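2024-03-11 09:14:02 INFO queue: dequeued item Hemerythrin-like domain-containing protein, len=217
2024-03-11 09:14:02 INFO validating residues
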Amino acid sequence: MHEFRRLLTLHFDVEEVIVGGAGFAAAPAHRARHRQILTDIDAMIDHFAVDRSPALRHEAVDSMEQVLFEHEIVEDTQYWEFLHDHRGEDMASPLLEWKSVYAIGVDWIDDQHRALMADLAKVIVCAHDADTRDQAGAMLDDFVEHTRGHFAEEEKELLRRGSSVTEHRRHHQSMLDRLTEMAAASKANPGALAAEYLTFWLLDHICGLDRTDFAAS
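2024-03-11 09:14:37 INFO prediction written
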């Protein structure tokens, strides 16, 4: 059950990055629904530790299976329809390009965001070229390290401005944990990870918490 919870958390994180990066207006509500499902699973795990009745476990698992089915088939349909309707309009292309709308108004941070986009675009290009495909994994590792350094500099800047950095740092650490885990698992096909997930991951970082926190500081 703990392993199922871990995998479901990863699945939810991927969903949240994609819908957030794509600009889905209901992304916060979707994220809150994920948190509620995970909280219910935690309560189930705690209860299993006290009551080991097979009948109870079957009933609880059946109930959770129904909740997840309804979430995936009914609630997730909303954002899949959104992605389909906006493909080629608001969504990023596989080859990332900097756009003025991504600027948050802090020149050096915008420059670093632009550089991260360029790094990610290079991973995608290299991964799809037979002559350079074997270099894509190392380039993805470089992207991870550049991102780690960028996050640290953002946190220092928030502290310099006298802003609270606790939530921003927690968000960064969560993003780094997932990035590191997924990069390690995608060595065989880093191009797919970069084009199908990290594009939205980076846009979620730039257009989400960064825009909110640096506008307020």
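2024-03-11 09:14:37 INFO annotate: Residues 2-86 form one domain.
2024-03-11 09:14:38 INFO item closed
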